[in-house]
Amino acid sequence: MCRNIKTLHNFSPPATSEEIRASSLQFVRKLCGFTKPSRANEDPFNRAVDEVAHVAHHLLESLVTSAPPRDREAQRVKARARSKKRFGATNGAVGPAHNHD
Description:
- With 101 residues, the protein is mostly helical.
- It has one domain.
- It is 55% helix and 4% strand.
- It has three helices and two strands.
- The longest helix has 24 residues, at 39-62.
- It is flat.
- The chain starts with 10 loop residues before the first strand and ends in a 14-residue tail after the last helix.
């Protein structure tokens, strides 16, 4: 459920609003225990996502570090290597479609 919660601090280029919102959505989903709210809970759920995204944005803007910014592509390659080591070469990818003609 929390696959989109990723480290967003100290990257070049910086995290986008979409990335911050996606992480906020996953966080609120985890807190609530459901992926989609009922109609009765839709407004508070969406409000919580907006508020978490707002606070996360301010947090990311205010954090300081002396470390050089991390390269997104290099981090992506490292993550793929960890995944391959953990789950195997296919990494759960779906293969080509079968033709049943």
